Amino acid sequence: MNILLIGAPGSGKSTQAICLAQRFSIPRIAAGALFREAVAAESSMGQKVKSFLEAGMLVPDDLVTPLVLQRLKQSDCAAGVVLDGYPRTVPQAEALRQLPFGIDFLVEVDLDEDEIVRRLEGRRIHPGSGRLYHLQFHPPKVDGRDDLTGEPLVQRQDDREEAIRRRISLFRSETRPLLAYYERETTRDDEARPQRIRISGGGSPEDICHHIEEAIIGRRSGEQGLKEGNG
């Protein structure tokens, strides 16, 4: 069972990807984590990835795709995966078919743009460790200071309102063709048809994960019933 999570920055997509991976006991494959591993390994590919990340640019397909495809070939992915952050473009989706690799469930986590801005604008980070805080949801014990070291917290440049809205706009421009691509797949090949689930990113992460899990289990049960009936 392969699940693709799609959602704007700040929608809670990655939180749900982690939760679903735990619920279904399958690995979460996150492009960002693969980038960090490549950079830490100090490989030639890792150095290239690092140059794009440090410049605040999207890592191009010719670097992202080999990392993801290599990870998907590992034995722990045989029973399925939760994809988080890949594919984000049509060429990336087409690259998955090289394995071949089909998406069973396409889960869209939808959240109002103003709510996304509120969530991301309140984030603060401890640069030395990467520990995250939020002024409203998870404030530090001392305003502006890391709980463990007492060192100053900072707001990332891309967590400022103008940058957030720019990232949301970029996400939408990239995602529209991707969703259309998967819609075309449903009409071209029923066997490769991804079932689309759209859910609000508002509410508690636990409730959202539970609703997604129920939707997936319900649709899988319905599919199984159809197969048994036709058999």
Key features of this structure:
single chain, 231 residues, 5-stranded parallel β-sheet, two-stranded antiparallel ribbon, 50% helix, 13% strand
Give your account of this protein's structure.
The chain has 231 residues and is α/β, with parallel strands linked by helices. Helix content is 50%, strand content 13%. The protein has eight helices and seven strands; from the N terminus they run βαβαααβαβαββαβα. The protein has helices spanning 13-24, 31-41, 44-54, 61-72, 90-96, 113-121, 161-188, 205-230; strands at residues 2-7, 28-30, 81-84, 105-110, 123-125, 132-134, 195-200. The protein has a five-stranded parallel sheet with strand order 2-3-1-4-7, with helices on both faces. A two-stranded antiparallel sheet has the order 5-6. Helix 1 packs across helix 8 (205-230), helix 2 crosses helix 3 and helix 6 packs across helix 7 (161-188).
Given as residue ranges, the uncertain stretches (5+ residues, pLDDT < 50) are none
Average of the residue pLDDT scores: 87
Binned strand content: 5-15%
Helical residue percent band: 40-55%
What are the secondary-structure elements, in order, as H or E?
EHEHHHEHEHEEHEH
Structural class computed from helices and strand pairing: alpha/beta
- The number of helical elements comes to 8
Question: End-to-end distance, in Å?
Answer: 22 Å
Instruction: Choose one word for the global shape.
Output: globular
Strand sequence of the main sheet, in spatial order? 2-3-1-4-7
Mind describing the biggest β-sheet? 5 strands, parallel
Q: How many DSSP-defined strands?
A: 7
Rg, alpha carbons: 19 Å
